[in-house]
Write a structure and sequence with these properties.
Blueprint lengths: L15 H9 L8 H17 L4 H11 L1 H13 L5 H19 L5 H26 L11 H5 L1 H18 L1
Helix pairs in contact: 3-5, 5-6
């Protein structure tokens, strides 16, 4: 049987602007200021201790971007434009950051595993952007954004393709 940790009182005086901010802050699983402080301090401790596993780190990263995600959802809801490019980028950044935050690198093997995961993620982003480049206009708020930035990447990919063909031939 597990027991709950004992609770200790904490008293602090904080500036009124911080108090108002805390009172209005939405913290999942917390309604009172005391609850919010417990959740936030627990997150900070885990972050400080480096005790984030990948899933916890991903949730934390997504939480950090929640205001942006909510703004984009509201914009999607009231407009006719949806940006798959922004959604793909935001997802990629959260996943990559979660890999970094949760990484334990004490051996060359662990470093190689992190490297592999990050390169895999980066190429997944590249593939997603290239899919957007396959259409005349990307599913983005700026339909030309992908085509405007893809030339160097395509030139490099073509050069690699030619080089591999020369090596195999």
């Amino acid at each position: 049987m597990t027991t709950s940790p004992s609770m200790e009182p904490l008293s602090a005086r904080i500036p009124s602007d911080l108090y108002l901010w805390l009172a209005q802050l939405k913290v999942e699983g917390a309604t009172t200021n005391s609850d919010k402080l417990r959740v936030l301090l627990s997150q900070l401790k885990r972050q400080h201790d480096g005790a984030f596993d990948f899933i916890t780190a991903l949730a934390w990263c997504r939480d950090q971007a929640s205001r942006l995600r909510d703004s984009l959802a509201a914009l999607d809801n009231r407009s006719t434009t949806h940006s798959e490019v922004l959604a793909l980028s935001l997802d990629h950044i959260c996943h990559a950051m979660a890999l970094l935050v949760s990484a334990e690198v004490g051996t060359p093997e662990q470093a190689a595993q992190l490297e592999d995961a990050l390169v895999r993620r980066n190429f997944a982003l590249t593939e997603g952007l290239l899919r957007q480049a396959m259409t005349p206009k990307a599913a983005a708020f700026d339909p030309e954004v992908v085509r405007r930035h893809m030339d160097t990447t395509l030139q490099l990919a073509q050069a690699i393709h030619v080089l591999k063909g020369a090596q195999n031939g």
